[in-house]
Amino acid sequence: MAGAASTAAASPGAAGEPSAGQNTDTQITQRAPANFVGRQVCAGCHQSESQLWSGSHHDLAMQRASDKTVLGDFDNATFSYDGITSTFYKHDGKFFVRTDGPDGTLRDYEISYTFGADPLQQYLVAFPGGRYQALGIAWDNRPRTEGGQRWFHLYPHEKISYDDPLHWTGRNQTWNFMCAECHSTNLEKNYSLEKDSYATQWSEIDVSCEACHGPGSAHVGWAQATAKGKRSYDDKRKGLVVALSDRAGVHWKFDRDTGIARRNKTLKTHTEVETCGRCHSRRTVLSNRYGYGKPLLQSYLPRLLDQGFYYADGQIQDEVYVYGSFLQSKMYHAGVTCSDCHDPHSLQLTATGNAVCAQCHLPERFDRPTHTLHKKDSAGRQCVACHMPTKTYMVVDPRRDHSIRVPRPDLSVALGTPNACNQCHTDKPAQWAADHVAKWYGPKRRRSPHYGRVLQAGRMRTPNADQELARLAADPTRPAIVRASALSLLRGYVNPVALQALQNGLEDKNPLIRIAALNALAGIPPPYRFRVAGSLLADPVRAVRVEAARVLAAASVDGLTPKQRTDRARAFAEFIEAQRANADRPGSHLNIGVFYAQQGKPGDAEAAYRTALRLDPGFVPALMNLADLYRAQQRDGDGEPLLRQALAIAPDDASVHRALGLLLVRKGKKLAALENFKRAAELQPDDAQTGYVYAIALNAMGRTESALAVLEDARQRHPNDRQILLALVTINRDRGAREAAVRYARELVALSPRDPQARQLLDQLQRR
């Protein structure tokens, strides 16, 4: 960034003027490609919007460090963390921190920029190669009465030393990749893979007008032409690249029977929500060039309701922001947009307290004790307390779940998910809350169906989970993100029900569902994949094409028509382009390596893995994948040093122990391999595959009783794992324990009643 070069804004008088050779007789001004003009130009006509924006979170998203912008205590304040004492001070009018650098040594660093303002403020430090790193120590800007006005560490319960991937000087805390796009306007990362450096630029340092409305020169041209009495060919859109017209001509009318307001006309586009979703979502970047005004999936791939990110019932778990939650809500499907509740310029709520909800929910029906079941002045009387509970991120930043759901403490009892009731009543168990709900609304409320039960069944691979997932995926009354999440959990099921569900998903009109169906196809043999999904290589949506390329990389080109070959080549190129949009991340080169390996291009795959390791020599996944590439080439001699290097870097990584153990088995060193398998099982006792591999190795060494003990322990942890049950059947059968073999075979059939192999195995055992 070399001081964060700012792109020059077009002057107001230049935009939209006729160019040489343009026909002006008709008084119709033609629009040149739009460029960014800057907030000051916008404010010339939109003063009230500019005033609302001033001082907003978007305005304060990023600022140059100065006495006006820095909120933290730099009066020689100190903060200690894991044996390191950092000092914050000023010198010659500049702000500095003395803290541990990339080698653990205390050094002095100048603060270049502030990041955010409320409830916390972070600080950016310039590093060589155009990088800006975000300090792991932040300023708590809450009032002192709320515990604020202090320095704190963003990972207070972990020991983040200088060699940890999460250390503030590491790649995972680099502003240019992690934060920049959503905290500035018209950001161009400008990363050089060859030099591993950045020349990042922006039009404006913060989230300004054109971050949402797109480059404004054509709109300025339209305004100037209109002021001169000229007509523009773009009068309808007013020259706007992003026409945020989702609410144009819309009003909400109350239905007196339900007490709920309805839109006077159906929402036909989701431009506004997807414009906000660009930054207010957990997503993967697919292109270095954001398509202003285009569907979100042309530039990004949002996260589904995946385990570890969302609870099974769709509530927020990890830091996923709000887009994926809002897609689940009834409000989204009723046509509510972000600006119905939030002023788009000040970002403040459009009303105070329950009055926000009263815009669409009659207060005389909903804002009364018969509905809230809480006393008038209690916190539980607030709509958001029950329907939008908070989860705290970054230690001090509570954020509301935007799925706007009905509290379901019964799901907490059944699935272990959170619920709004116990967020306030922390001294009570979930069953207490569930009993109260049943008392208030009757027992049927407790038994009403919820997709969380199905998604949990899919995560746990319970018997008949595939049928439930298939039904959920086919239910048009459910949110698309829920249906897509159900499809993604069908990965690994190879039966008519699952395959038909995936086939239907591939043909669904919603691109998110098509993507999920593609993802689930990864467990199906490559020839079948291309037969059912090859057409999606030419899908109109970029995210679908990119996912199709990834999933179909291993499919043979034999028998393809010229058009299919062309579609395949274009989609494959888009996949590589999508990975190179994140070329500063070792994981992107890992993805490229896997992509090439699946196509039978070991040289290209090795080069990609080596690039990942050049960026991060300690990137364990690249070491493991390169070793596996060598295995496929019968080069275990080259692979073993890589796995041992990975083990030295991550001695507690069970997957590395398991991979090394398998390599040692291939080399005939079974006893040494067994030690690695044992260690992997100790490190990862809840992983079914790890326990299975250890048990098979024990059995191969003649230690059958020990193998059965390991398998039985794994079965207790994973009662629905087909592989473990099959091993219990076959090992007991081979040792002559027919009764035990039959018992496990029956469990296997109950788990997979449509599996002919399981039924045949049970029949054979019962005939003996």
What features would you describe in this structure?
- Helix content is 43%, strand content 11%.
- Helix 21 (511-520) runs parallel beside helix 23 (542-551) and helix 30 (670-683) runs antiparallel to helix 31.
- It contains 35 helices and 21 strands.
- Among the domains are: 62-183, no CATH class; 252-405, no CATH class.
- 40% of the residues are buried.
- By secondary structure, it is of the alpha+beta class.
- Strands 3, 4, 5, 6, 7, 8, 9, 10 and 11 form a nine-stranded antiparallel β-sheet that branches. The protein has a two-stranded parallel ribbon with strand order 1-14.
**What's the average pLDDT?**
92
What are the low-pLDDT stretches, counting only 5+ consecutive residues below 50?
1-30
What portion of the residues fall into strands of 2 or more residues?
A: 5-15%
Number of strands: 21
> Helix segment count?
35
| Through-space gap between termini | 75 Å
Helical content stands at 40-55%
> Biggest β-sheet: count, sense, barrel?
9 strands, antiparallel
Rg, Cα atoms, Å: 29 Å
Global shape: globular
The secondary-structure class comes to: alpha+beta
